[in-house]
Each structure stands twice: as C-alpha cells, then as structure tokens.
Amino acid sequence: MAKIKVLTIFGTRPEAIKMAPLVKELEKNKECFESIVCVSAQHRQILDQVLELFKIKPDYDLNIMKENQNLWTLTSDVLLKTKDVIEKERPDVVLVHGDTTTSMGAALSAFYAKVPVGHVEAGLRTFDKYYPFPEEINRVFTDAVCTYHFAPTEKSCQNLKESKISEEHIYKTGNTVIDALLYTVKNHETEIEGLKLNPELKTILLTSHRRENFGEPIKNICKAILELLKNNKDIEFVYPVHPNPNVRKPVYELLDGHERIHLIEPLEYAQFCTLMKKSYIIMTDSGGVQEEAPSLGKPVLVLRDTTERPEAVEYGTVKLVGTDREKIAANVQLLLSNENEYKKMSESINPYGDGNASKRIVEVLKGIK
C-alpha cells in the first residue's frame, strides 16, 4: 500500500512546540507515512530553539520573517510560498496548528490546491473577532476550510458542531502541548544559565506578548508588579521578554534595574519548562501556558479579559484577571496570602489531556486513504 504523504506546516515557537510531538509520532510510523515538514519561520530564532530540542530538520524553510513585518505582507508571503511547496509535493493531507497567520495562510493555500487540511487544536473560540486579534479569525477561518478537526476538549468539539461542521470529521484528541511538556520535563530538565533565583523567595513567572496587550495594558501589568513587590518582600519576578519592541520598550522602561525582577531573553523550551516547574505562580497572556502549567500544579492568572480555553477556568486551574492594575495585584495577593485558595487552584485537574494526543491523531490519519 502506498504511504500517506503528510505535509506539516508551522511557523511560530508555540506551533513548533505543539506540532513537534506529532512530527515525531509520524516518524515512528514510517511504514504508513511519508512525513514532510515545512516551517515558515514566522518567528525565526525562537522557532529554531524548538526544532533543535526535538531534533526536527525541516524539509522546507520559507524564512519569511522580516523586521517590522505586518499582517498583510506576512499573510501574502505564507500563501504564496506554501503554494510552491504544496504544488511540488502534492501531499495527501496538510497539517496546520492553532490560530497563527502561518496556519491560516497555509490552510488557504492547501484549500486552493484542493488538498485536505487537518487542523490540530481545532474548535477553540472566544466569539469575539477582535480578541485575540487576529488569532480568533485565523482559527475560525482555518476550521472553515479544513477537513479533519483534531479538537483538544469536549468544549472545542461542541464549538465545531455548533458551527455546522460534520461530526464525522471531529476528533477529540487532547492537546499535543501536554505531550510536549511531559516529554520535555522527563527528558530535558535543565538549569537556566545566569538566572540566580533566591531560594528564600517565591518565584512568579510572567509572560506577556499578545497584540491586544500592547500599549497601556502592558504598562498596567508592569505597575501591578511594582505594587506587589512593594507589598511583599518574599517574592521575585522572572519575565522572559518577547523581542517585539512593543513589548520590550515599556517593560524595560518600567521594570529594568529592580533587584527582585529578572528581565531575561526568551528561553529555550526546555529551560522554560524548568522555570514553570520552579515557579510558585504564573501570570500570562499565552494560550499554551494556560494549558501546560496546570499539569505542573501551578496556579495561572491570565492577563486577558476572555480566553478561547474556558475549560481551565471552569476546572479552576486558571483565573482571568485582565490587565487592570488593581485586579492583577489583588488576585496575586490572594494566592500569596491564602493557602486554601492557592491549594484549590494548584491541585485542580488539567482538562487538556494525558500526553497521548499525537498518537490519537496519527491513528486517525492512518485511515484517510
């Protein structure tokens, strides 16, 4: 029987983390699949770190990242460059992930070529087209053109059904990010060079990089941090600062130089997993971190007003706190001062999977021919 040709396309670090276990699972099943990997390199340096960690060598590297790139140029570059790859390889299925511009552009390119698309992490919704921007519409569009919907939770399956998508092609798989996290924590726990955390202090990990938090929201987050440090002598913050100047400029202006704030460069994934494991509380606007941290028993405060991952809110592993300075500070303070509240969040069940999502997806793909 002829092998099923699978073209996997991704371009950002979060996509790479979540697609890497799937790529490795396809490699384990060489008798069934010819696996081809294409990266857009929408994020260049921080993407390469993940490829190296998981020992993935792309067959195609589109290298589209440009200084100060915008959504128009990025989308057109993805669409046109993936067209060439798809026309050359003529795969049986194209796999994309999540809500990035790379995923949306690659899915559209495959649709134009009449190649079936499999959407990993399908069905997530905020039902607000401008929040997160442009991710919500990227995801809705990708779901609309794809054939195979690999949904991480029952809620995401339900969202797809309510969108009139055929139940025949909706598969509840769990989230591949848990596959990646558990593998990495088990096999690649590592020290973070140069980061001298005080063992006497509680470490609070912060990440914030989304477009909707540019400007005043990120300034409010920084001001909340300063207020918390003033009121709590037993905490320190670690903030891997995203390279986008819209993030770096206000963060360094407001937080640089404080003895209990570690502003560091973005970490390699293995180091970031280690840091999550060592942290006491995690504050983030990242979707992936909302899914990962509960598996490590860490309370997560989400620096957004809505989330396309409501399951974690319902289970109590994360709490939406937005970007209001007072609300952020109050919720962190509650976890620092109330042991029962901390225990309730840290011991809740993670709804996003058991580490076998990639295996489930591969089993589905075996039956597409």
Protein model, in words:
This protein folds into 2 domains: 4-175 and 354-365, Rossmann fold (3-Layer(aba) Sandwich); 202-346, Glycogen Phosphorylase B (Rossmann fold). Helix content is 45%, strand content 16%. The chain contains 15 helices and 13 strands. Strands 3-2-1-4-5-6-7 form a 7-stranded parallel beta sheet, with helices on both faces. It has a 6-stranded parallel beta sheet with strand order 10-9-8-11-12-13, sandwiched between helices. Helix 4 (101-112) runs parallel beside helix 5. It is globular, with a radius of gyration of 20 Å. The relative contact order is 0.13.
Task: Write a compact overview of the structure shown.
45% of the residues lie in helices and 16% in strands. The protein has 369 residues and is an alpha/beta fold. It has two domains: 184 residues, Glycogen Phosphorylase B (Rossmann fold); 145 residues, Rossmann fold (3-Layer(aba) Sandwich), CATH 3.40.50.2000.
